[in-house]
Amino acid sequence: MSELQQQIISELGVRPTINAAEEITRRVDFLANYLRSTGARGLVLGISGGQDSSLAGRLSQLAVEKLRAEGVDAHFTAMRLPYGVQHDEDDAQLALEFIRPDRSVVLNIRGGVDGVADAFREGTEEPLSDFNKGNIKARVRMIAQYAVGGADGYLVVGTDHAAEAITGFYTKFGDGGADVLPLSGLSKRQGAALLRELDAPARLYEKAPTADLLDEVPGQTDESSLGVRYTEIDDYLEGHEVDADVAAALEARFLLTRHKRALPVTPDDTWWVAG
Ligand SMILES: Nc1ncnc2c1ncn2[C@@H]1O[C@H](COP(=O)(O)OP(=O)(O)OC[C@H]2O[C@@H]([n+]3cccc(C(=O)O)c3)[C@H](O)[C@@H]2O)[C@@H](O)[C@H]1O
Ligand SMILES: Nc1ncnc2c1ncn2[C@@H]1O[C@H](COP(=O)(O)OP(=O)(O)OP(=O)(O)O)[C@@H](O)[C@H]1O
Ligand SMILES: [Mg+2]
């Protein structure tokens, strides 16, 4: 294994092998302990119908139930955040049935996103690309979660994990903007193993991962935008040998997206100096 591969695995906190039941307990305990120590009143998270929010949502619900069993008042709010009508709404409903959240709120982000998009065109007199609009959708979802969570004194849960963090495949201050990251350090297949252990419907972890941010390509798979397969990303993260081309692509993206995994850069920071 190259020195850089070792460094990436260690920086992202990946464990090459896991025990799914132990990982569930460790991550639920983390959420419960953190809530208890901060005095925050609960957790909030957008539920898309994809693997990551299904897992993070269920862990969040289990954490607040654990706290309530100990006499601490804590609750979980699941948010549906469609842009208009979501083409795979049935998957989102399946995820909600699996998570069984204390409360479920629907907030359509269309008005917010279109408002920013219209103002962009008016203010700059330039067209807004579908890609840029996609990042606005992710950021409006972040705003919606902080608004609903903030009203109740809840913390915002993020779904970032090692297989996304390595390529920076999330919107900075969009879905990357959160207070707690219960899936941190997991590869994509490890996340699927946790869902299987939790008896989730197979559809939720067998479905092709999608950011689903583009109007022009609804449901575009992550693998087709990234040009790398999750099995390859997972193999790399779990310390296996992968094709030299794949390793080079992952390492280039890792280095290019370091700014996303750090706090905003200041004059006293030096992590960027070597390149
Ligand atoms: N070196 C640097 N130091 C400090 N800041 C730097 C920087 N380079 C760019 N930036 C800043 O970062 C911005 C670019 O980052 P960002 O706005 O995130 O945009 P970007 O990384 O270009 O796009 C986000 C990517 O994540 C994918 N995504 C988004 C949301 C969810 C999911 C999913 O899987 O569900 C995937 C999306 O499909 C797209 O490929 C720049 O506009 C600039 O403001
Ligand atoms: N339509 C949506 N409704 C509610 N939340 C959403 C929606 N789209 C994205 N999100 C939020 O943004 C996060 C990032 O999306 P991402 O696609 O990485 O995760 P996912 O959809 O849960 O799983 P997968 O990566 O397998 O598709 C989601 O986990 C979810 O919290
Ligand atoms: Mg998704």
From TrEMBL:
ATP binds at G46, I47, S48, G49, G50, Q51, D52, S53, T159, K188, T210. Residues 24-264 form the NAD/GMP synthase domain. Pathway: Cofactor biosynthesis; NAD(+) biosynthesis; NAD(+) from deamido-NAD(+) (ammonia route): step 1/1. It comes from the Bacteria. GO terms for cellular component: cytoplasm. It catalyses: deamido-NAD(+) + NH4(+) + ATP = AMP + diphosphate + NAD(+) + H(+). Keywords: ATP-binding, Ligase, Magnesium, Metal-binding, NAD, Nucleotide-binding. Pfam families: NAD_synthase. InterPro entries: NAD/GMP_synthase, NAD_synthase, NH(3)-dep_NAD(+)_synth, Rossmann-like_a/b/a_fold. Gene3D superfamilies: HUPs (3.40.50.620). GO terms for molecular function: ATP binding; glutaminase activity; metal ion binding; NAD+ synthase (glutamine-hydrolyzing) activity; NAD+ synthase activity. Deamido-NAD(+) binds at R139, K172, D179, H259, K260. Mg(2+) binds at D52, E164. Its EC number is 6.3.1.5. GO terms for biological process: NAD+ biosynthetic process. Catalyzes the ATP-dependent amidation of deamido-NAD to form NAD. Uses ammonia as a nitrogen source. HAMAP family: NadE_ammonia_dep (MF_00193). Belongs to the NAD synthetase family. Homodimer. This is NH(3)-dependent NAD(+) synthetase. It comes from Mycetocola lacteus. The gene is nadE.
